[in-house]
Amino acid sequence: MDDFPGLSDIDVLQLMAAVFDRPAFRTPFQWESSLPAFRQAIEDTIGALNTGAWRTREGDEVRRIPSIHHLQDQRIQAVLAKVVR
């Protein structure tokens, strides 16, 4: 948790938003050509939100981001936990 000192919840959420900026979340579901790739994108996103380790599909670390546990507002943390579930 000391990796991101002084970040507000808004700052944390802005950094987390980057993991959603991928074709799997912009492509209409009926146009998705690879369900395994779509599933992997979801798993990678959940992993990044839970651990703060943002990784490529191959498992290489892209960068570190704050995890859900960095959020101070319990309501925001609960909503994001629902997103992960």
UniProtKB/TrEMBL annotation:
Native species: Pigmentiphaga litoralis
Protein's name in the database: Uncharacterized protein
